[in-house]
Amino acid sequence: MLSRVANNLYWMGRYIERAEHFARYSKQIYFSSLDAPILKTYDRNFVLESMLYMAGIFDMEGMPERDVLFKIGMDTSNTNSIISNITFARENARGARNDISTELWEAINKYYHLATSYPQEIYLTTGLYDFNQIILDQTSIVSSKIYGTLLHDEEWAIILLGMHIERALQIIRIINSKLHDIYKIEQVGHPVNEMSFEWTTLLRCVEAFDMNRKFYRTIPDREQVLEFLMLNPHCPRSIAYSLNGIRKYEAKISRNENQESNTISFKIGKLYEQYRYLSFDEYKDDIYGLLNYTQSRITEIGAELEKKYLSF
Amino acid sequence: MKQQANGVLESYRLGNSHFDEVFKDTKEPKEHYQSIVERFNQLSLSDFERINNEVKTAFFNQGITFAVYSDDKKPDERIFPFDLFPRIIPNEEWINLENGVIQRNKAINLFLEDIYHRKLILKDQVVPADLVFSSKNYLKEMVDFTPEGKIYTHISGTDLIKHTDGQYYILEDNLRCPSGVSYVLSNRLALKKSLFDLFDKLKTKTIYQYPEQLLEILKTVKPKNIDIPTVVVVTPGMYNSAYFEHSFLAQKMGVPLVEGRDLFVEKNIVYMKTIHGPIRVDVIYRRVDDEFIDPLVFRKDSMLGVPGLMNAYRAGNVTLANAPGTGVADDKAVYHYVPDIIKYYLNEEPILNNVQTYRCEKESDMKYVLENIDKLVVKPVDESGGYGITIGTTLTKEQIEEVKVRIKSNPRKYIAQPIMSLSVHATFIEETKEFEPRHIDLRTFCLMGKDTEYILKGGLTRVALRRGNLIVNSSQGGGSKDTWVLD
After folding, report:
1. Nearest by CB to B262, which of A2, A255, A310?
2. What is the ipTM of this complex?
């Protein structure tokens, strides 16, 4: 596989995954707030701030809702908007068009056209749910084409490697955003035992609510949710699961070369094993510390992958 | 209820004085179109528009599009207009075309070998030596170099038209990077999906083997001492207007699509940069023009090329298809001599007609051209895509004077031809929601390898969508049709 093509496929995977997380977060946070039990959460500004925090935009606090929604969803001058991510995903796919299946290309191309032709005014007035749902549905179609219409070889592995790196980073981002929200709620004096709503919302933001219910069979609380989203190896929206994906797909690309201590494989393996043998008690007092540590390790691994494989 | 009264072709009006491919003067369909016309007449306008829209959406989602850039907005993506009514060529007619195209391309290939080696045809004064040496597409880097299998034009696109007399004429040769074959294959697929029962009415020859044949042809010219060659397609990149075609062909052949920056040359060997290191490349189907392929030899500012590629090529370590320097033979002034070239090398009479061509460089021709410019088409000899062409009947007095000045300032650059009356074909026009006669031409695709050749059965029928327009190039607002050669 050409390094340039690998670069395209890797970033295609990352942008597809990123757009999906942004869309899901926007949708969940916004709509769950409409009948929230806690007054603070009910406040629209609070919700918009949370969306901005997740999207990494820090200069729009207090701006009108329309402007915020536009910036996050459809602003092409914001390189991190949902539309921009989809555009980049499609451009990367286009540059590697003959290396992916016709079916996958058409799914991504159709996704791009559906999203970019969505009427702005409708998105800003009545279409917020609909637009974000289109993103989620189209992502599912694209994912199924990735699994079902590509040979499971290196090219496939590099797309999934990109997707799992991005997923781990986005989950960390979402947890961070929600912890930030909860911190703000606590600051105004709400008792923590009223917080199950916030923990539920966090689970929904990564589509893990039903899985969590099934696993614990109790009302979600802080410990349970943070353990689940960080450590559970079977929840496809956990950090541990994403790390396993990174390990698996990187191994396919590195062809299981010697795992000496300075290789990328070694670094990935180390982080993955750390998560495997971690218990909540060990990090419950420093959640942010662990999230930050994980984030920098993954970013570092991403940079090394790019250097080694994607920039001949 | 029979819908015949509302059939989509009922309102068709014959164009005057042009050769109509579909209908006789009595408005009866010609024999080979009968069953297709009947089928279309079973469709009401709304049926037809529905199918037409479905096809357009499919093309759009498949990304068979080109971008139109305006201001700072996101580029507007448009599909190449595709007309659902196929163009049909009876088998006898096709056989003659096929033989003629192969004959012509064989002779042209021999001509190229000759002018880059012994130059016999110039010494025998069949073709003026000046004409060849003054062409900017005659490359000194190719002199005395023999490409593998003595093949220069692995892929050629020969453009033909049918005149009022019902005869085919060669309009031009495209010997550099002729494009359009991906549309031929996509058009067929689109028609099969949307109007599949048409294929029960008539039996058309299949075209799907083209990419396989192309790959086979490219493998026949692999460098010596290479067993299983690595073939790649080189594209200028995804912002090139033919990028769809480049990726399409690479995908269908199952070979990598690379850009210049994906390749490098070391010790006269070409490599591509992969995630596991360099891999040697043996055959390059390049869709980058000569002047951009190697910045060390040609344009220094080329970002699309590969430094050192020409040396690797001349060392025999890599094959380029087409060979550099073929543009000298599709020069429109050389075109005039192709019938003589055929006689000279093959000792055969040309099977297909040339259009009468006046070379402005020749004094008597120049005189005729200047006096009759309002009745002639004037073309620059070395442009493609329909650029720079003027058609006498459409010019104002001032424009005629401008053209005269242009010709006089550089006679070598211009040729003139009588205005050929391209045949017309019923074509659906979206603005009037009716089928109307529109001018068409035909681009054939001929492949040549070591001791083997292949011609695509049919080709790209291009259609000028604006009424009365004679220029069919897609860059000038042309569309296309599926082309059937009957079995």
Report:
1. A2
2. 0.86
